[in-house]
Amino acid sequence: MLQSIALADKTIGTGHKPFIIAEMSGNHNQSLERALALVDAAAAAGAHALKLQTYTADTMTIDCSAGEFVVDDPAGLWRGRSLHELYREAYTPWEWHAPLFERCRQRGIIGFSTPFDASAVEFLERLEVPFYKIASFENTDIPLLKCVAATGKPIIMSTGMASVAELETSVTALREAGCEQLILLKCTSTYPAAPGTTNILTIPHMRALFQCHVGLSDHTMGVGVAVASVALGAPVIEKHFTLRRADGGVDAGFSLEPPELRQLVVETERAHQALGQVSYGAAGDEVKMRNYRRSLYIAAAVRAGERLSHANVRVIRPGLGLAPKHLDEVLGQRVRVDLDAGTALQWQHLE
């Protein structure tokens, strides 16, 4: 069994309820007031952590509006927009990080972030973040992985698009650079993702392959895929979060609203509770329900010495008489005492 991992004051691992991360991303729409409201709403919905992204447009790409620097996916949310423009709209101002992390502390949830370059790691270290997240698009950026691992803090890494060989290289780099507590997240890097492309059966396979906990970074609509992943052992669920999709924003279209985030928290915890252990037979309050099984009862009064037949013994509810499997054994036998209708048949009633 894999060892549990401590993420700040929360424990991740077998026997612990799923750890729910609300991903703010660019859903603050460049309003600190809205960003703080997102923290409040995530905490009220029961999320355990709120994640920021730490970058600027200039640390992500160059300001170019031609060729491959423009999104050309005809079905994508961001078609026709330059990468620099998108990152300029979505980035979280670095001066907001401290007040947002402070609001997280006030609301009893964990604030942390995804760094996208070494300068972001250095900045987040000054803010004493308790652990880090590596985004799918950075999971092959070995220099960044080594920089984050050198902090010695736990790392959560999304695995979107990565082949097994790429993950082997990245996981090895993280561990060799000092990461001792690693959680991978199965991820499909489309926005939104279709449930049929999520392939969450990969979760237990990845867990066995890399000998670490494996959760889910989920870009599908709703909570069904996330709940199903818990049944496969996912201890961490990350979902994008907004106050209202109708408010717009670069990530709003595939983000949960507060009631949906609350549903995610509740339903993943129920799924976790339902896992239990391998168990057969009656358990807990189920024991008393055995009385409502069928059993053998006297259906018509019989006198001592009379034989039992289909006319005077039946298989009915409740279950206080002999088990139905004994019907053929008792038919034709004589009773030793008078038995009224409604008597639960017992062996001592027979000669």
UniProtKB/TrEMBL annotation:
Enzyme class: transferase
SMART domains registered for this protein in UniProt: SAF
Residue ranges of every copy of the AFP-like domain listed in the record: 295-351
One GO term of the biological process aspect: carbohydrate biosynthetic process
Keyword terms of this UniProt record: Transferase
Species of provenance: Exilibacterium tricleocarpae
Protein name: Pseudaminic acid synthase
Gene: pseI
Enzyme Commission designation: 2.5.1.97
Listed PROSITE patterns: AFP_LIKE
Recorded superkingdom: Bacteria
